[in-house]
């Protein structure tokens, strides 16, 4: 069983916010597909829900980008390895979300659907990166690295 000890580094607040925003973004993106599908089958009221979720998604994507940049900065200050991947993916998520809003408002359906599916796939990738890359390094990582040589 895993026990939190003094040697175990605490997970920074930025990591927790990234976990929440990435999970929320993925779930909301999947809800977008569901609401769009139900709208197409005749439930016209779901277009309002679809539009509202899209607006919220843009806010979540913006928060995720800001926190991804802060996470990178926090890791660099702590002397831990940093990566540009999460910041770049978060920027792409934000750009795609804003583009989606424009396409949806203009009723340009074909690219809107294609980019929506692509955004859902990208959201899965972002969550994977957040869960694997944004974890704290173990306190004994340098000792283990020296033993492996």
Q: How does this structure look, described?
A:
It is a single chain. With about 150 residues, the chain is an all-alpha fold. The chain has one domain. Helix content is about 75%, strand content about 0%. It contains five helices and no strands. The chain has helices at about 15-40, 45-75, 85-105, 110-135, 140-149. α1 packs antiparallel against α2 (about 45-75), α1 (about 15-40) packs antiparallel against α4 (about 110-135) and α3 packs antiparallel against α4 (about 110-135). It is elongated. The mean pLDDT is about 85. Keywords: Membrane, Transmembrane, Transmembrane helix.
Number of strands: 0
Q: What gap, in angstroms, lies between the N and C termini?
A: 28 Å
The helicity comes to over 70%
Element string (H = helix, E = strand):
HHHHH
Mean pLDDT across all amino acids = 86
Structural class: mainly alpha
Work out the count of structural domains.
1
Radius of gyration: 19 Å
Proportion of β residues? Answer: under 5%
Biggest sheet record? none
Question: Any idea what the shape is?
Answer: elongated
Q: Spans with pLDDT under 50 lasting ≥5 residues? A: none
* Helix count, DSSP H or I runs of 4 or more residues: 5
Short description, anyone?
The chain crosses the membrane at residues 52-70, 82-103, 109-131. The protein is built from five helices and no strands.
